[in-house]
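Researcher: Watch the backbone:
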Amino acid sequence: MGRFRVSRISRDQVAARIRPGVTDGPSRYTAPAAATAAEGWTLSRATPPSRLYGANGLRTGRNGRLYVAQVTASQISAVDIESGAVEAISPMGGGIVAPDDIVFDDAGNIFATEITLGQVSMLAPDGTVRIIQGDMPVANPITMYQGRLIAGECRIGARIMELSLDGSAPRVILDNVPMANAFEVGPDGKLYFPVMGTNEIWRVSLDGGAPEVVAGNLGVPDSVKFDSRGWIVTTQVASGEVLRIDPVSGSREVLAQLGPGLDNVSFVGDRIFVSSIPGEITEILGGGQVRPVIPRGLQWPLGLACGADGTIFVADGAFGYTLSDCALTLAGMIFYPGSPGYLRGVVAAAAGEWIVTTGLGAVARYRPGAGESEVLATGYDQLMGVDLARDGAVVFVEYATGRVLSAKDGDVTVLASGLDKPMGVAIGADGTVYVAEAGRVVKIEGGKAQTVVDNLARPQGLAASGDRLFVVDSVAKTVSEIDPVARTTRVIATNLPVGAPAGVTPRFLGAIGDMAGPMIPFADIAVAPDGTLYVSGDAEGSVIALRAV
C-alpha cells in the first residue's frame, strides 16, 4: 500500500499533508499544492497513482521512444523505453480527441484515429491539427505503407479504407468487417488485421477482393504487427496472451501471458513492447520473461462501493476491480462473459454482488465471480451514481435529463426531474434521497429537489454515513462533511487529485459505438464498515483513503 507522508501542522487547520511528489513513483498528475486533511483525519493511498491515462495505440518514433495513444485523456505521450519517463506530445485539452491508434509519416506528422469523433486527424510537428477523414464511426486501426495511409473501424460492419491526403474521397479496401483493430501490411504486401467479432486474423489485398482467414480460435485479437522475421505478433485482449504466429504455416507460440486488457504492439529493433488498456507498457524478453516499462494502473477510477466485508469495488470503465488489503484484483472487463458493459456507478448488494450503472444507460445486478449480470432497467441517458434503499429499490440518477429514478420489481418510477446534471446519489438512514447536482446537494421530497447546501463548485460523488453526508467536489478538489439537518458543511480534505488538472479543459468524450456511451468523469466516494472514506482520485488514477483519528 502506498501512503502519503504525514506531517504535523497547525491543529486548527490541518493535521495530515500529502506532499506533491511524495508518491509510490511518478504520477501522471502534477498537483499544484499539497493535499491536506483536516484535524482529526488522515490521508493515504489505497492504490498507487497511474503513470498513463491508459495505453491504446503504440508506435515507435524515429527517436526510439514509444508513442502511446490514450483515449480517455485525449493525449498522446512519448515513453523512454529504458527509464520509463513520459512526455506529453499532444496533451489533454489539446487538438487531438480520444486517439486510439497512431502512425507517423516520413515528415514526422502523426496521424491519429479519433475513436469517439469518428474521424482521422493529422498532428503536424508545429502542433497544428487538421482532419484527414471524417465519417468513420469508431475509427480505430491505422497504418502507413509506402506512403499510403490506411485506416479502419472497430464496429460490426466496419470498413477498411485507403485515405487521401488531398481531400478526395477515400477508397474502400474491404467492408462489412466484424470489428477490425490494429493492423499492418505484411511482407507479402497484403493487409493483415485482427477481426474481434470472429476471433480471427484475416488478410486482404490492398486492391480489395475477398479476405482470407490466417488464424482463428484465438483470445480475441486486437492487434497484428510483424517482427523482423516476417512473423505476426498479436495481442489478445480477453485472454491476455501475446502470440507469435507464422503467417505461412499457421504455427503459433505464446510469448507471454500478461493478463486481460492488452491492446497493441510495437518494436524497437527486435525488442517487443506491448500496451495494455489500463496504462501498462511491457517489454517481452523471451522465454516467458517480461520487463515492466510502466506498471498497470487505473484509468479513472469512477464509481466506488464498499461491501459488508470491507471489500471495495472499483468501477474503472471497461474494467471492474475489487480492492482488499490494498491489492487490486481484476473482477471483470467489458470483453468477459456476463459483463454488463462499461461500468460507472456502483453500490454493494449481497455478498459478491454489486448494482452498477453502465455507459450504455443500463442498471444491472452484477455477480462478477459467477460471470453473470441481470439488467434491472435500461434505455437511459448517461447514468451516474446509484444507491440501494432498505426496501430493495435501486435509486439512480440520469445526468443528461436531470432525473432521479427508482427501480424495483421491474418497475421504474421518476422521483424527481429537472435537476442540473446530477451525479452522486445517497440514501440517508431515514430513507431520504440526496443528490449532488451542479453547485449544490439537494434532498428529494414530494417529487421536488430542496437545497441542503449550495455554493459548491462541481459536487460529484456522494455518500451517507450515520447522520452525515460526504461529498467530493471535483473542481474545488475537496471532500466535505455535510450535516443535512443543520445544512452546514465542513471541508475535511483539500487539494485532492480529482477532476481535471489546473488550467485544462478536458475534451468531451462521446460514445464508442455500442461498446460505451459518453465517457464522463465521475469522482465517487464510498464509506467502508469501519468508517473509512474511499475517494476516486481520478486525476492521478488512484483510490484515496480518508480516515478519522
